[in-house]
Specification:
By secondary structure, the protein is α/β, with parallel strands linked by helices. It has helices at residues 22-32, 71-88, 104-115, 230-240, 256-263, 275-288; strands at residues 3-9, 15-19, 37-42, 51-55, 61-66, 89-99, 120-127, 142-149, 163-164, 174-177, 183-189, 192-197, 201-202, 207-208, 246-249, 267-272, 293-298, 307-311, 314-318, 325-328, 332-334, 337-340, 347-350, 353-356, 361-365, 371-375. The radius of gyration is 24 Å and the shape is globular.
């Protein structure tokens, strides 16, 4: 397997995203950089049997990924991904696996076999409120997040995710004010008196009901069907990594873990085989982070996208030979490459190839790298 294209956005490189198959790329990274990651978070397909879509800003929908692979193929993929994730982790590192009732039991057995049952930390229940109530069984309103450590030397910082106790009275505590005017709360338990002040930390338990599921019109949504909330990702990042650490997400999807990692001063490697995931990551990283990032394309079965190089407010696009890509943009071009004069674009990939909404013309590059500009009024999308 080889990389056939790369985008560089900005001068720094705090994040690297691979458009690639997760188990294959993880195996490569584990061989090239073993014991380098502090945190691996996996949000793989849930074995729903469904096909998921991504939505462009203009409302159009495109296939994002399929979650209908056979059971044998699924578990072979996941075992390979988890073994490589284990090899990629530092001794102080942690793995979080996001799943639900369909797969949690088998994942627990698989992770016990790979990490060792003694390195199980928590089964976190992410309880959320969403529409719909079942009548054939109790409504399923939670996901499972399995938390394992690489070794007993694990890094874990509950202070980083603690909330302040505040002025609210809790658990029938007695309120008092000391000589310095500080409000304190006390409770007797087991023959002992426990006293807390308003600034005392409260650490999360293994049931997370304070983080909401993203609603359909949530402003955080980016159009990717299985997007997870940033608050959920940031709690994991802050608890199990420190500034400068490497965070890895082999099923990056909408890029929420990457955004959370970069916002909190971590480095990030993401992997996903869906061009729609790459589109979401590109747009969110450009909009929601300050540092630079790179995108790499592996030699997959699907046609490769062109190479985008962003520098100095311009986008240089180099088209790979043998494929047709359409760009809704006005720009200059030379020898199979052209420049878009602004980086404020919204690219997406689907059956109509790759488009960048920018101006009032269609720039089409053919298989030989030749380009032609057509006024937008006369332009139509072409199948690649």
């Amino acid at each position: 397997m080889r990389d056939i294209g790369k985008e560089q956005h900005g001068s720094a490189c705090g994040a690297l995203f691979y458009l690639d198959d997760a188990p294959k790329r993880l195996a490569m990274l584990a061989e090239e950089a073993p014991a380098s990651a502090q945190l691996v978070y996996l949000d793989p397909p849930f074995m729903t049997g469904n096909r998921f879509e991504a939505r462009a800003q203009d409302g159009r929908r495109f296939a994002a990924y399929r979650d209908d692979m056979g059971e044998t193929a699924y578990w072979e993929m996941m075992e390979a991904a988890l073994r490589s994730s284990h090899a990629l982790l530092k001794p102080e590192g942690s793995l979080y696996l996001h799943c639900d009732y369909r797969t949690v039991a088998r994942f627990r057995l698989l992770l016990d076999a790979i990490f060792g049952a003694q390195h199980f930390m928590n089964e976190i229940i992410w309880h959320y409120q969403s529409g719909g109530r079942a009548k054939a069984h109790f409504s399923r309103k939670h996901d499972n997040i399995l938390f394992y450590r690489k070794s007993r030397h694990v890094y874990f910082d509950p202070e980083a995710v603690a909330a302040r106790r505040g002025a609210a009275r809790r658990n029938h505590m007695k309120r008092s004010v000391d000589s310095d005017g500080k409000v304190r709360y006390s409770i007797r338990s087991g023959g002992k008196i426990y006293t807390y002040d308003e600034e005392a930390p409260i650490y999360p338990s293994d049931v997370w009901s304070d983080i909401s599921h993203l609603q359909q019109r949530d402003p955080e949504r980016c159009g990717y069907a299985t997007q997870k909330p940033l608050a959920l990702m940031e709690r994991i990042v802050r608890a199990s990594s420190a500034a400068g650490d490497l965070v890895v997400d082999p099923f990056a999807g909408s890029g929420s873990m990457g955004v959370a990692a970069l916002r909190n001063g971590r480095r990030f490697w993401g992997i996903d085989a869906s061009p729609q995931a790459m589109r979401a990551v590109r747009r969110r990283f450009a909009r929601e982070t300050d540092g630079g990032f790179s995108l790499c394309y592996a030699d997959l079965e699907s046609p490769p996208p062109p190479t985008w190089i962003c520098a100095g407010g311009a986008i240089v696009v180099e088209t790979p030979p043998g494929h047709t890509w359409d760009f809704l943009s006005a720009g200059s071009y030379e020898d199979g490459s052209f420049v878009v004069e602004s980086s404020a674009f919204a690219p997406f990939e689907a059956s109509v190839a790759l488009e960048a909404r920018q101006s009032n013309a269609l720039l089409a590059v053919d298989q030989e790298g030749r380009a032609a500009v057509t006024p937008l009024a006369n332009a139509t999308s072409r199948k690649s």
